[in-house]
Amino acid sequence: MSKITFNELLDAGAHFGHLRRKWNPNMAPYIFMEKNGIHIIDLHKTIAKIDEAASAMKQIAKSGKKILFVATKKQAKDIVAHHVSKVNMPYVVERWPGGMLTNFATIRKAVRKMTTIDKLMASPSFNDISKRERLQIQRERTKLEKNLGSISDLNRLPSAIFVVDVLKEHIAVAEAHKLNIPIFAIVDTNSDPLSVDFPIPANDDASKSISAIVQAMTDAIEEGLSERQFDKDKKTTDDDIEEFDDNKSIRSLEEIEEDEEIERKAKISAKAKLKDDSDEDTDKPSSKKPVARKTVVKKASPKK
Predict the structure, then answer these.
(1) Per-residue pLDDT averaged across 253-265, rounded?
(2) Does residue 248 sit within a domain?
């Protein structure tokens, strides 16, 4: 995973905070100094927090879960949409639809309605509708695509959300808190870092700063997805090898049994042959001539 450097953040202007009178006291650990009435953020701590957040996001992506990116600020819309669309993660860059997390079932109905309109527009019966009704359907489809098109693939609640400005997206943060969803966020000196689980102290107004941090997050997600795919391919290969070994062992057992059967049949045939030979020997007449017995005649002894 390519780590972001100190100079990259410095060039992006990530160290500039807000005016001193707008600061949040909870941001004190992340403030390096004050200059001309403006707080300067400690970029060393920013890098440490980026690495921590990137590692957590990588694990979430590796487990196959979704991370929702929220950035409705004008300077962050195009940046987030550009980077996040590359890793196929859901994002909200238009108005945050209230209850998107806490009332997710209703949002899913709106997404399904968009799918139904697509099917209607693709069917031949769409041309039979009056021109006025067609225009109304097309306007509704455009509106739904603008607000919900980027979350059409989100079939369940996200496992985490990434927020660019905590104060502007306070509704999204409140809904995530209610559902115990982990929150990653870029927090400026006027924000409360205690309201999020993974705060990244940085300038949330400069487009370069936002781009650098969002790119670091998406790179971590992409690496997690790559590792997930690699593990899946490796598991498939291991299963194939194991199946091949099982088949080979089965074949070996079959061959052993076949050899034993052949040997058993050979023994049986040999025994049968020996038995037949012994029967033939018994039935065959003897070639030996009968031995003639000699009769011994006793001579009579002479009388005296």
Answers:
(1) 79
(2) no
